[in-house]
Design brief:
Blueprint (H helix, E strand, L loop, with lengths): L1 H14 L8 E3 L12 E5 L11 E8 L3 H5 L3 E4 L13 E5 H7 L9 E4 L26 E9 L14 E5 L2 H5 L7 E3 L8 H12 L11 H8 L1 H35 L1 H9 L4 H37 L1 H5 L1 H30 L7 H7 L1
Parallel strand pairs: 3-8, 5-7
Antiparallel strand pairs: 1-9, 2-3, 2-6, 4-7, 5-8, 6-7
Length: 364
């Protein structure tokens, strides 16, 4: 109870800052990877109330004013009120994606869902490698009622298709036993004033023994979430560079072997009047055909792969960055590889221009 009173007083003080338009608490930080296992529920209206749980959704625990603070539109019904933030509350809010997927064409307001666990707890812990050791609730089923429908929000790395989501109100039990992320205060503020310093000052004035942690901007939050994606991109880039080096060495070795294997043929051709450029063209023409065929196949495969990924990741498909750089990626990368391959083949092929016909025929 002391935690709830303290945080409510802090929220009231922060909300009165001139540069702050709204503020709220949440147990589920936006665009974070918190190991949440989500919820499994059945639907009382569809006749499968007593059947095994057939629906799954992401789970978020949010405080009053969460949707207004983050600019998430309320499509139907209402957002959470102060009355919903009680331990015996059965109110939930569902996302538009959940309605479209499970209740399409039906009225979601007042719809009842049954969860496998009446106690709403967070996930297994923070990513990576942490666990949430909070006490789990009883195994009894509890029925919740949808009081509102809100718009979809990005999940995970922000590039996946929206998933069904169920929002629970932040209850007194959550204040007393928060997840490892703690209770997060979200404060959108106008540029200029140092809101972070002001919030720290307010907390210190209320209780000097309490120290906030994990303070960062939403930009930093997104950057932290995307760190794994960036690390993977760099890893794949380094692997690709080594692959390019190895393939170049292999092409150079094959071309050198081809020149050595055809020394007698080269000697005969040059003895019959073929010039050095003609001999070089003999090897480069064949290499060009193979490289052209491989580049075409790679280009088509890359285009098909991009279309598949765009159909899976809706945010990527709509991204201006992807749309603007897609031509350079699809055309520039194959051309780069083709150029590297041609240069790799050209260097050992030049050796054929230095072959003397008499010496070649004498060696054979």
């Amino acid at each position: 109870m002391q935690s709830k009173v303290f945080l409510r007083n802090l929220l009231d003080r922060v909300s009165r800052f001139p540069s702050v338009s709204a503020a709220c608490f949440t147990d589920s930080v936006p665009l974070s990877i918190n190991g949440d296992v989500g919820v499994m529920f059945s639907d009382t209206e569809s006749g499968n109330f007593g059947s095994p749980f057939i629906h799954s959704a992401d789970k978020y625990i949010v405080g009053k004013g969460y949707f207004e603070t983050l600019g998430i539109p309320v499509m139907a019904g209402q957002a959470f009120s102060a009355e919903d933030e009680s331990d015996n509350s059965t109110s939930v809010i569902v996302s538009e994606e959940l309605v479209n997927r499970f209740w399409k064409g039906e009225d979601a307001i007042g719809r009842r869902i049954k969860l496998s666990n009446g106690a709403v707890e967070a996930g297994w812990g923070l990513w990576p490698g942490t666990f949430d050791h909070r006490t789990r609730g009883s195994s009894s089923h509890q029925v919740f009622e949808a009081v509102g429908v809100v718009g979809n929000v990005p999940r995970g790395f922000g590039v996946e298709k929206p998933a069904p989501a169920v929002y629970f109100p932040l209850r007194p039990a959550d204040y007393g036993h928060p997840s490892f992320q703690g209770i997060t205060l979200i404060v959108p503020a106008a540029p200029g004033p140092d809101v972070v310093r002001a919030v720290r000052k307010e907390i210190s004035a209320m209780d000097a023994t309490i120290k906030p942690f994990g303070v960062r901007s939403m930009v930093a939050q997104v950057g932290q979430t995307l760190f794994a994606v960036r690390a993977a991109a760099w890893t794949y880039g380094v692997i690709g560079l080594f692959g390019l080096i190895l393939s170049s060495v292999g092409l150079a070795g094959m071309m050198a072997y081809s020149v050595t294997y055809r020394i007698r043929e080269i000697g005969i051709r040059m003895a019959l009047g073929a010039g050095k450029i003609d001999v070089l063209g003999l090897f480069m023409k064949r290499a060009g055909l193979l490289i052209g065929a491989g580049t075409s196949i790679g280009l088509l495969s890359a285009w098909a792969g991009m279309r598949v990924l765009a159909s899976i990741f809706a945010t990527v498909a709509r991204s201006r960055a992807v749309l603007s750089y897609a031509p350079s990626l699809l055309v520039g990368a194959p051309l780069l590889f083709a150029t590297v391959a041609l240069v790799t083949c050209y260097l050992p092929a030049r050796r054929s221009m230095e072959i003397e016909p008499i010496v070649a025929l004498r060696q054979e």
